[in-house]
Design a protein that fits this description.
By secondary structure, this protein is mostly helical. The chain has one domain.
């Protein structure tokens, strides 16, 4: 019985981690590209 419960709990845990992991990587890549561009512009204007 304990072995079956562990497998059932592991299945939902993997699906939940796979869903948020895919969108998080895409958002991180997009957010990492735009920030460096405006940062350089602000530094030049401040100077």
């Amino acid at each position: 019985t304990p072995a079956r419960t562990a497998t059932r709990t592991s299945t939902p845990r993997v699906q939940r981690t796979s869903a948020p992991t895919a969108p998080r990587i895409e958002q991180g890549s997009r957010a990492t590209l735009p920030p460096p561009v405006p940062r350089a512009s602000t530094r030049g204007a401040s100077r």
